[in-house]
Amino acid sequence: MAGTTTRWEQARAQERAAGRGGYGAHFAQLIDEGADIEGEARLADVLAPRGVRILDAGSGMGRVGGALVGRGHQVVGVDFDLEILDQSRRTYPALPLVESRLDELTPQTLAAAGHPTTYDVVVCVGNVMILLAPDTEPAVLANLAAVLAPEGRMLVGYALTDAPAATSREYPLDEFAADCAAAGLAVESRFAGYDLRPFTDESAFAVHVLRHAPRAG
Ligand SMILES: C[S@@+](CC[C@H](N)C(=O)[O-])C[C@H]1O[C@@H](n2cnc3c(N)ncnc32)[C@H](O)[C@@H]1O
Question: For 80-108, what is each residue's pLDDT tens digit?
Fold first, then answer.
């Protein structure tokens, strides 16, 4: 429930205890090495008309939102981890950030920070959905649906097996689809990766494109 410890915080506590830098250090190193870390952003950019509003939900160290700013979009990142938000500010200073838990995010939170309350594309990638606090997935999907423009699309990707963080949950596809439906969202497409590889029963990763479910009648 809102306010309870997230799987992300559990993972960070384990990493700190083991002296590992984890996600933030990993992506800082990839940037130093000149690696491609923009696959998710490229697909989000394909979903978006030019120069639109994009919400990066669980924006982390900013690699996705920062790349989308670079493609001319009006992006806002939302995250609650102060250390990772600080890394994002240093790495991608042009990416505006809002400090909030996603299970507590409201249009008012965004408006109070001077940002739009609706977005043409909502991005929630990098395993955010399997690192939330237990049982908050439906609330997070509902909160993101509440800021998705009527014709907007949402990009959600997470690992089905072998997730990087040991504390990640398993999130079966049928449960995810049911949580989406409860939030008024419909699964438009499912792929096995951000390069649009076809999804199969063997796929270890799921990339979903969501939109508002059509109103009945
Ligand atoms: C593995 S990182 C991925 C970050 C980014 N999306 C990316 O792909 O680089 C997971 C992120 O989810 C964020 N997160 C997890 N639970 C959250 C919650 N309840 N509210 C806001 N952010 C959350 C963490 O703070 C962390 O930055």
Answer: 999 999 999 999 999 999 999 999 999 99
Enumerate the domain spans of the chain.
7-212
Q: What angle do CA 36, 6, 191 make, to 5 degrees?
A: 40
Domain 7-212, what architecture? Answer: 3-Layer(aba) Sandwich (3.40)
Ramachandran assignment for 47, one of left (phi > 0), alpha (psi -120 to 50 degrees), beta (any other): alpha
Q: How many whole angstroms from 123 Cα to the centroid of ligand 1?
A: 11
Say how far apart CA 70 and CA 122 lie, in whole Å. 17
Q: Which residue from 8, 14, 129 has its CB within 8 A of the most atoms of ligand 1, so it is best to mutate?
A: 8
Angle at the Cα of 37 from the Cα atoms of 33 and 42, rounded to 5 degrees:
145
- Whether this prediction's pTM lies above 0.85 is answered by yes
Q: What is the pLDDT of residues 147-183, one digit of tens each?
A: 999 999 999 999 999 999 989 999 999 999 999 999 9
Tokens matching residue 88: 């994002």
User: What's the 49 CA to ligand 1 centre distance in angstroms?
Assistant: 25
When pLDDT is averaged across residues 3-13 and rounded to a whole number, the result is: 94
Ligand 1, CB within 6 Å, residue ranges? 6, 8, 23, 58-60, 63-64, 79-81, 84, 101-103, 125-128, 131-133
